[in-house]
């Protein structure tokens, strides 16, 4: 009696699997046909596979080729290219203000919760929610407030130079310089955010493998954003989401690594939340009296209802600046030194400017921001040019087209479509920068005020519009100071036979294998 039932159940199961498989194939084929021929974006050119599935875009990101591919596609198809079923990439820099206008919402590409359970400013999608929150926390980030931290940057810069002098200046000996700018950037930003440095400079090493581990997790981070419908579906199953998708200090790679870093005195516990709680209580008890760092400023913020920020929000904001503000600054310094040490003409011109300004008494022992602004135009142009050619986040920053849709070059783009630019691509717009757009030529920023204003208008490395990087001024402060002191102290010689490796993973970029020799420079008086 039992065997026919088992056979029947087996038969029904096979039937169910066959029906489900056929159903899935019909759905996928139908969806592909719709996306290719009937979707409102079907009229836009682009790779056919990209129009059918988001996996095409995720694959470009995974292969570390996304910005290069987008640039090539723009040359092949023109300024608007369809790069996923619902996303258009725009390479025309002059469209930045149109796409990144004040009311533009971020798309679901900005996966929520992946930096921890509480929403950060960076991830808020609705412009209305974002603008309210940004208004509340923007105060400490203004240039005048950030300048109160100039001595904090000086302290770490001095230590950075001293440590490199002790460890790296050895006649004829090459070493890999790539992590040293990142050590400096992390110590500065962790001091700003936590009231104490993580200690990379002291140790002269990637403490707890934090930097490398963070990089290793970026592949997953990039894929989660590009495949957000799948990510959001999987997130409905909390046991999977909590285990794999929300960063936690216990993780061995990615953003969790940074969460673990925590408070400088908490080793080996190293946990962001505990560390932060300790620092906040120390600030309250007056231990850091007289300091005006970001953490203190965040504690002093009052919302429109007159309430202080909740601990969860302070934690998230401190955490976001660690993620957003260390690696990015480190990459910019790497790029700057890479460009200038490869080009003897640029290097010589730059060092002449710096040495002449020092001899004329225009620069303090550790140059101050104002002095750089007034006396080192070529140095600032070098930084701008490095940021143009090598944006640390050569990523997608999609915005949703607002109500009523948008006209792009005579074609209608419906409301809700994702539009994105990529800084790597718009910074190479030949209409703006001319035929030598690929060349590192700092002079272009100094030739005419009109041109420089135009270039500045279409810079996208820090984002654009109301979501532009909140730490932009602090980054500028750091970049106008740290690398300058490095160049005043040392003569770097990059090994031309082993060029550095440039990585782009999950929308972030950085260099490894920057083999060089360092010589101490004669002090200029
Ligand atoms: C060269 C260094 C840096 C680069 C290239 C950079 C780039 C960016 C970019 C591209 C965005 C996102 C824009 C978007 O989603 O549309 C962003 C946002 C942000 N950055 Fe930076 N960043 C840098 C340094 C910093 C620093 C030093 C801090 C903190 C002190 C910081 C804090 C933030 C914050 C809080 C946001 C979110 C702003 C918002 O959504 O309102 N960044 N940054």
TrEMBL record:
Tell me where the transmembrane regions lie: 12-34
Which residues does heme bind?
469
Tell me the keywords, alphabetical order.
Heme, Iron, Membrane, Metal-binding, Monooxygenase, Oxidoreductase, Transmembrane, Transmembrane helix
Write down the superkingdom of origin. Eukaryota
The cofactors named for this UniProt entry are: heme
InterPro entries recorded: Cyt_P450, Cyt_P450_CS, Cyt_P450_E_grp-I, Cyt_P450_sf, Cytochrome_P450_monoxygenase
One Pfam entry name: p450
Query: Known PANTHER family for this protein?
Result: CYTOCHROME P450, P450, PUTATIVE (EUROFUNG)-RELATED
Q: In its UniProt entry, what is this protein called?
A: Cytochrome P450 oxidoreductase
Q: Which organism is it from?
A: Capronia epimyces CBS 606.96
